[in-house]
Amino acid sequence: MDLSLSTRNVSGPSGDRTVVEVGGEIDVYTAPKLREQLVELVNDGSYHLVVDMEGVDFLDSTGLGVLVGGLKRVRAHEGSLRLVCNQERILKIFRITGLTKVFPIHTSVEEAVAAED
Do the beta carbons of residue 98 and residue 66 sit within 8 Å? Predict the structure, then answer.
């Protein structure tokens, strides 16, 4: 399985957000593609990101590492990284690793965009 990525800008009550829609599998083979996308967005000045993981079928530790790295990058610029996910098998990974305490996880893009920083 491959990884699909697309980005779009959305305005919310707290300002503009860049939504990264992710589809497929985030694993040791595809995670570098996501890492490059996040680095490029931050380098271009997008510091408030929403990663939409509704289309993600699989997530491994490499993918988690990329998300944590993205969070560190945006926080270095006083930014935020929010996740959108309501698939139980993916949410379970965040719970087991304790990352639910690190990432704000929302059930929809609209909810994530509307959330205060």
Answer: no
10, two tokens: 């959305």
Interatomic CA distance for residues 57 and 4, integer angstroms: 11
Cα–Cα distance, 117 to 106 (Å, whole number): 13
Q: In whole angstroms, what is the distance from residue 78 CA to residue 24 CA? A: 30
List the CATH number of the domain containing 74: 3.30.750.24
Contact 84, 95 (CB under 8 A): no
DSSP for residue 99: G
pLDDT tens digits, 48-64: 999 999 999 999 999 99
φ/ψ of residue 41, rounded to 5? -60, -45
Question: Into how many domains does the chain fold?
Answer: 1
Query: What percentage of the chain's residues is helix, strand, coil (to nearest 5)?
Result: 40, 35, 25
Beta bridge partners of 11: 16
- Full residue range of the structural domain in which residue 94 is found: 3-114
* pTM of the complete model beyond 0.85: yes
